[in-house]
Amino acid sequence: MYRSTLKTYTISDSSTLIGGGEVQYNSIGTNIRKFRTEKKLRQEDLAERAGLSANYIGMVERGEKIPSLESFISIVNALGVSADMVLHDVLETGYEVKSSLLNDKLRNLSKHDREKIFAVIETMIKHS
Fold first, then answer.
1. Is the alpha carbon torsion for 114, 79, 70, 45 positive or negative?
2. Structural domain boundaries in the chain
3. Phi/psi at 23 (nearest 5 deg)?
4. SS3 31
5. pTM (2 decimals)?
6. Model confidence over 45-57: pLDDT tens digits?
7. How would you class 46 by CB atoms within 10 Å of its CB: exposed for 0-12, middle for 13-18, buried for 19 or more?
8. Checking CA distances to 96, which of 2, 103, 121, 127 falls within 20 to 30 Å?
């Protein structure tokens, strides 16, 4: 039987080296908090929906705990968001999720405001 081992080195409470890159796990909790507050949920509300304790949700949001896969799935389902939206800061393809989030925000603006933002972005790219 073939057995694969992934070496993980803890740097601090909220970041880990995996495969040579540093993963900032505290951003997962930060994103969970962001989506929870956008939906006007208290930690207790999210905990009840996810079948977890409010204390545990608080520890995850502060980056003190990394949720298990089962807990993570319960949390994102309770929030009604996709896992990649919560993980976009730690995924190598996270820029695609950020692009999608940016598109959603731009869609809600007036045409005039979108044109101003595009002009700023084009100027920034031109001078970078």
1. positive
2. 26-92, 95-128
3. -105, 125
4. helix
5. 0.60
6. 999 999 999 999 9
7. buried
8. 127
